[in-house]
Design brief:
The protein is mainly alpha-helical. It has helices spanning 2-7, 9-17, 22-25, 28-44, 50-63, 67-79, 85-95, 101-113, 120-134, 139-154, 162-175, 177-190, 203-207, 211-226, 232-244, 251-263, 270-280, 285-297, 310-318, 324-339, 345-358, 364-379, 385-399, 405-417, 423-436, 442-454, 472-477, 480-497, 503-513, 519-527, 531-535, 540-553, 559-572, 578-591, 597-609, 616-625, 631-639. The chain has a domain at 562-640.
Length: 640
């Protein structure tokens, strides 16, 4: 029986073919045979092999093919229920879909009678079984169970436990009407904890309640939430339900819920915040205005990033749920903060970050308003670098959605911003220029390209002599350390543009890289954005420099750089000449000995990618060098 217990092949066959064989199974001779088979199986349940017993019981559900066979199984389960009430209760629930009305009455009666059992587990199992079967009951049967439970609660015939409460909730929610109201009163006076018991999803029951019925439930949640003596988990569950049911609360209830939840916001539990988020966006007009003002007034002025300020972070989370009216309120608040010269700089910076979060929902008028305020802060040389940098990024996000004069002015603003004395502002301008690149015309592409080229040309005695050298001023202001830090930024920015650059422009870029002490780093920054595209435009000498830069990167002290270089070599090596390929293979095989596991994995994967280009001798060398743990990475890449 060992295999039978594990695989249950007969069960599977019967389950798959029962509908097809239904007409055969109802044949009088076969039907009698099945009844006899059930009677033969039953004595085997007395054995002590639990797995065998469970296996045989599983067969019974497939043998319930008629009223008569189902009746035999039901009667047997009732007789031996005490022996293993969990298993037999489950079987009765499973076959309930095959029972007729009278048989269902019999099963329901059986479970209800055992609700008075003094054994806690038998009592709870019967209550759970009633919930499972409730879906199959008609209105008469549902009323029968409902009346039994209500009478049992009132007479204290059974203990008002959570399982029985859940059974009453499910039955009454299906019936509706006065039964729903009776059940509600029962919970409020006898077992209010059922509403916020985390073991059950009470939402189905609560969503069926009418507005006048919800008042008592709402007050129950508010009271429990504010009760310091109440269990912490119960208070959290009350908060969660206030959020889940927010669609059902009226205007006053929403305001009360907001006031209660905001007092819990200092508690270290994300469910309080989530509930507050949900309720806040349901507030209307003046209430939302007050809530918004409350959050902003509690911004932590010591923090600049919205993610480190819980009130700013909350506004960020709910920003995408604003309706049109709420959007106007939010934007007006943010604009007031931006235009207030006396406002704390960190508050302004967070408002700039929050405006970026809602830009996708702004109309053209709102975008223009945000654009003008941001441009004013950026243009009039505010001394706060993070504020100006934030405005630059905001302007880039706005301008890409605007046309004509706004776009042209922003472009000019950013190219000039690349000459700013502060590196943070330069970086923000470069980042925003990349965003605008989607809508550049040829002239703007040429201007930006030349600006970025000039970033590499900062040599002693070098002087910009064309009108397009918009970064002429930066060469006279930066010291050697600043030049080195900016070169990589410029190289990365050019990399973003590489798909638009022609071969001549790429030749100019590589010419500028000659002789730099951080040449390899700049080449990697240049190529990492679009390696495959760029490689098709380069000559062999330029490809040699790229291979050399990434091979050199495999010896970098930073493991992330080494991993990235190994991955990039796998991409570009498919374009390599024989000599270049030999150098790449040797470098990657050396990388298989790297101390970092991720670097070794990247080297193995790249070797797998280029394996089809290798000679037999090279493949033999790779297999000899390949560690056992990296074999999967190698062959997995080879398959791809």
């Amino acid at each position: 029986y060992g295999d039978r217990v594990l695989d249950r092949p007969l069960n599977k066959v019967m389950k798959l073919n029962l509908l097809n064989f239904q007409y055969v199974l109802n044949h009088p001779d076969i039907h009698l045979c099945i009844i006899d088979q059930i009677k033969i199986i039953q004595p085997q349940f007395n054995c002590y092999n639990r797995k065998l017993t469970e296996d045989q019981l599983n067969l019974l559900q497939y043998l319930c093919i008629s009223t008569e066979t189902s009746d035999v199984v039901v009667q047997y389960c009732k007789q031996v229920f005490k022996r293993d009430f969990w298993t037999y209760a489950d079987l009765l629930c499973v076959i309930s879909v095959k029972l007729n009305e009278q048989q269902l009455d019999d099963v329901i009666e059986f479970f209800m009678d055992r609700l008075v059992d003094k054994d806690k587990y038998t009592h709870e199992r019967c209550a759970k079984s009633i919930v499972k079967i409730a879906l199959k009951l008609n209105e008469r049967q549902l009323n029968k169970v409902f009346e039994y439970l209500m009478n049992a609660f009132e007479s204290e015939k059974i203990t008002t436990c959570d399982e029985c409460a859940h059974a009453l909730a499910m039955i009454s929610s299906k019936l509706g009407g006065k039964q729903l109201d009776f059940a509600l009163q029962c919970f409020i006076y006898w077992l209010p904890s059922y509403f916020y018991n985390s073991r059950y999803d009470t939402t189905q029951f609560l969503m069926k309640l009418k507005e006048e019925q919800l008042g008592d439930v709402f007050q129950c949640f508010i009271n429990q939430l504010s009760d310091e003596k109440e269990d912490r988990h119960n208070r959290v569950n009350c908060a969660e339900l206030l959020g889940k049911l927010s669609i059902k609360w009226n205007e006053k209830q929403l305001n009360d819920a907001f006031n209660s939840l905001k007092n819990m916001f200092n508690k270290d539990n994300w469910k309080y915040r989530e509930a507050l988020e949900i309720v806040t966006v349901k507030l209307s007009g003046k209430q939302f205005d007050n809530a918004f003002n409350y959050f902003i007034s509690r911004f932590n002025c010591k923090e600049r990033d919205i993610n480190n300020d819980k009130y700013a972070d909350l506004l960020k989370r709910i920003a995408q749920r604003f309706d049109e009216k709420q959007m106007n309120i939010a934007l007006n608040y943010f604009m007031d903060k931006l235009n207030n010269k006396n406002e704390h700089q960190n508050t302004v910076i967070k408002c700039i970050q929050l405006i970026k979060e809602i830009l996708n929902k702004c109309n053209e008028q709102q975008l223009n308003k945000a654009f003008n305020s941001s441009m004013h802060i950026f243009t009039y040389k505010n001394d706060e670098k993070d504020m100006r940098g934030g405005c630059a990024e905001l302007l880039g996000t706005i301008a890409v959605n605007l046309n004509g004069k706004h776009f042209d002015n922003t472009f000019k603003c950013f190219t000039n911003g690349l000459k700013d004395s502060n590196w943070t502002v330069q970086k923000s301008c470069a980042k925003s220029l990349v965003i605008l690149s989607k809508k550049w015309n040829n002239k703007q592409l040429d201007i930006t390209f030349q600006c970025l080229i000039d970033g590499f040309q900062n040599k002693n005695g070098y002087c910009c002599y064309t009108s397009r050298h918009l970064l002429e001023g930066i060469a006279m202001k930066l010291n050697e350390t600043q030049i080195d830090s900016n070169r990589e930024l410029y190289a990365k920015s050019i990399g973003y543009l590489s798909m638009k650059l022609n071969k001549r422009q790429l030749d100019d870029v590589f010419e500028c890289l000659n002789g730099l002490k951080d040449e390899n780093k700049c080449i990697r920054a240049l190529c990492e954005q679009s390696l495959e595209t760029m490689s098709t435009k380069l000559n062999n000498r330029q490809l040699d420099r790229i291979f050399s830069a990434f091979i050199h990167g495999l010896k970098d002290t930073n493991e992330w750089v080494r991993e990235s270089c190994a991955r990039s070599l796998g991409i570009i090596a498919t374009k390599a000449s024989e000599k270049q390929l030999e150098e790449v293979v040797n470098a990657l095989m050396s990388g298989l000995k790297d101390e970092d596991n991720y670097v070794r994995k990247s080297c193995a994967k790249s070797l797998g990618i280029i394996s089809t280009n290798l000679t037999n001798k090279q493949l033999e060398g790779v297999f000899n060098a390949l560690p056992y743990k990296q074999e999967y990475d190698y062959f997995d890449s080879y398959k791809k």
